[in-house]
Specification:
The protein is mostly helical. Helix content is about 75%, strand content about 0%.
């Protein structure tokens, strides 16, 4: 008997949202149409002005990519589905689809004296995304959707990481009121941590 994946359509839909969100990030990286470029030196200056936007793009690209990898790995631990699980996934997709907007704000204002709102919004979205992970883990466990006891243990561990990230990014969002540039740097550093942690976890599971 052929095994059917009850979450196949959900996974395909999620992959499409991730792909669109990660593509939209690059749209705001452009030289303003009002810029007067009349020499090679001026073009270089305009490109230098784009560095914050490029860094914000790289950070958000990493955020969405790591989220997609974790989502793909989580779905491998699940063999069933439920309405609450589907809506929890929808909440996660909402945060992913919204990332291009605060990413554009971060790229435009992070190096200015008005960076606080951009950094606050960015970390607030990351906190909401962490909350979505917690919600997904809770719906998976409460509905008994995991493939095995070992998978359930992994989901519980993911929930703890989700709570940690939720508290961390909420604190960052508040701290950005006073030190937005420093918080932006710390936010980027945490995603290096998530990347390294994810690689180690995948290696340990092999």
């Amino acid at each position: 008997m052929t095994h059917t994946n009850p979450n196949a359509r959900l996974e395909a839909f999620c992959d499409a949202v991730f792909a669109i969100a990660i593509t939209l990030l690059v749209i705001d990286i452009r030289i303003p149409p009002t810029a007067e470029v009349e020499s090679t030196a001026e073009l270089w200056r305009q490109l230098v002005h784009l560095v914050p936007a490029v860094l914000a793009f790289a950070l958000s690209f990493a955020v969405i990519l790591i989220t997609w990898v974790n989502h793909h790995a989580a779905l491998k631990l699940i063999e069933k589905s439920s309405p609450s699980f589907i809506y929890a996934n929808g909440f996660l997709l909402l945060t992913v689809a919204f990332i291009p907007f605060p990413s554009a704000l971060l790229g435009e204002y992070v190096a200015s004296d008005h960076a606080a709102p951009a950094v606050i919004l960015y970390d607030a979205v990351l906190a909401a995304q962490a909350g979505a992970w917690v919600l997904i883990c809770r719906t998976v466990l409460s509905n008994g959707l995991t493939r095995s006891d070992q998978a359930a243990t992994t989901i519980r561990r993911n929930a703890r990481y989700g709570w940690f990230a939720l508290v961390l990014y909420a604190i960052f969002a508040v701290a950005a009121l006073w030190q937005p540039q420093a918080v932006a740097g710390l936010t980027a550093a945490t995603w290096v941590f998530w990347l390294v942690l994810g690689i180690r976890m995948r290696s340990a599971q092999r």
